[in-house]
What we know:
- The complex is a heterodimer of chains A (about 280) and B (about 290).
- Chain A has about 280 residues and is mainly alpha-helical.
- Chain A has two domains: about 1-60, no CATH class; about 65-235, MetI-like fold (Orthogonal Bundle), CATH 1.10.3720.
- Chain A has helices at about 1-35, 40-45, 60-65, 70-100, 105-120, 125-135, 140-145, 150-160, 165-175, 180-190, 195-210, 210-215, 225-235, 240-260, 265-275.
- In chain A, helix 9 packs antiparallel against helix 10 (about 180-190).
- The two termini of chain A are about 45 Å apart.
- With about 290 residues, chain B is an all-alpha fold.
- In chain B, about 75% of the residues lie in helices and about 0% in strands.
- Chain B contains 13 helices and two strands, in the order H-E-E-H-H-H-H-H-H-H-H-H-H-H-H.
- In chain B, a hairpin with a 7-residue loop joins strand 1 and strand 2.
- Chain B is globular and about 75 Å long.
- Classes of the chains: A mainly alpha (about 280), B mainly alpha (about 290).
- At the A-B interface, helix 1, helix 4, helix 5, helix 6 and helix 10 of A face helix 1, helix 3, helix 4, helix 5 and helix 7 of B.
Amino acid sequence: MGKKRKEFLVKLISVLVLTAGALVVLVPFIWMFSTSFKTLSDVFQYPPKFFGEIFYWQNYVNVFETIDFIGMFKNTLIVTVAVAAGQLVTSTMAGFAFTYLNFRGRDTIFKIFLFAVMVPFYVMLIPTFSLMRDLKLTNTLWSLILPCVVSPFGIFMMRQSYLSIPRSLGEAAAIDGCSPWKIFTRIYLPLSKPAMTTLVIFTFMSTWNDFIRPLIFLTSNKNMTLTLGLYNLVGSYATDWGLLMAAVIMSLLPILILYLCLQDFFVEGIAVTGLKG
Amino acid sequence: MKTKKRNKDALWAVLFLAPAVIGLCTFTLYPLLDSLFISFHQWDLFGDMKFIGFQNYVDFFQDATGRKVFINTVVFTLIAVPIQLVMAFFLAVALNQKIRGVRFFRGAYFMPAIASMVSVSIVWQWLFNTDFGMVNYVIELLGGAKLNWLTNPNLSLWTIIIVSCWKGLGYNMVIFLAGLQGIPATYYEAAELDGCTGLARLARITFPLLKPTTLYVSITCVINSMQVFDQVMIITGGGPARSSSVLVQYIYENAFDYYNMGYASALGWILAIFIFVLAAVQFRFMGSDDYSVE
């Protein structure tokens, strides 16, 4: 009886602490939402109230009039889809070569890719910039896409997933006269759909949220992406919090919706990479 | 016959690996070596390069600002990483129980991790506003006085630390949670038969078995923290008086504000060496099993 009660108590305390913690973690989101529907005079009310005097959705309209939000959204989407598609192709192909094919130097090449996972982008900042300048690609969306199409991390992840596919499947197909290309497209690709979904989500998240590349490569408004657009908006409308919060919410929406629909893929994907290193 | 298959495989490998290898060489290996090359020169991005040997590295040790941002980065890492680890660990332990609403809690704690650092930094800048911010309002409710989170040089780095911990907590929790779920329930049952419960269970079973996960989380966390940038740019801009300025921001400024490409590259390599050493430690301790090609 004593033990049962103790267990119940531990659970009760856990739930209470977890609820309080979750509230603290979510407050910034809640407050951002509330502020986005306030007029400027309500924003600067002290003590702050959760609801303003009026429900001011005009902030959202103002975002479209202040910045080219649709253009930025479109640019970000183009870059994100292109990078995700590119990484999917290069990672699955390379991952297949590193698992199924037998060739000299395989381990060495793979180790170079593993090393590349660790290289921080900031050390490559200047050479990447001058490379893009020489290719006349600065201030184009290509400068955000091309350097990201190959992801050593994505290759590592796909290889990890292919390791769990029995070799005999491919070998049996090879005896029946299937080429490695067919084995790749007919066996490995269909069997790795969950890993591919995780990879796409990862890429989507990091590309959609990327700040440093747009910051150094983009100069004109025409090619602006969302993170850079928000950064510039803070610079010029620093105190119009209603407008800023509305812009932030709209920029978060796609990834938030994706998260709410595919929560398990987000979470389990990260868990898997953590476990496997 | 065997070699023939191997040769054929090699041809296919060229086909399958070509895009990845071309990309790796162009956008990782070449830039990495090129920045090492640039770091031994004086260069303004437009004119000719002038070879100056190790001067850029020597300059770093004599540059007061360079030292300041490096110390800030290290202090940030030394405070933010342990806080995140401890909180993420206990959060994971709490969530590993059979309680209602686990999915909701997990989803809520993970939410900061999916949003861009830029957007949540803007929100936090508003929350930390001295006169109208939510944070100071709560402090006043609890009987404290308003703090200048963004303009007090003794606080600005703490502001960055708080935001970073809030953002990183859920991510690290998820990895810990996966590690916990990998511990067989039978271990705990056996321990219970031997009368080992509560904290003793945590100390005797959970901690030792979670060592690899903890090592992985700590090292990734340190590597990421050493590269802190976005939140600094938005929340404080590194100010006031460089009190919250960090290494990557200084690299960016040297490169694109002062056009000191050589010095910026040298700073980049100092960061990179730090990270490579940490990564090497991780490989060593985790053993090579996880990475070997069978």
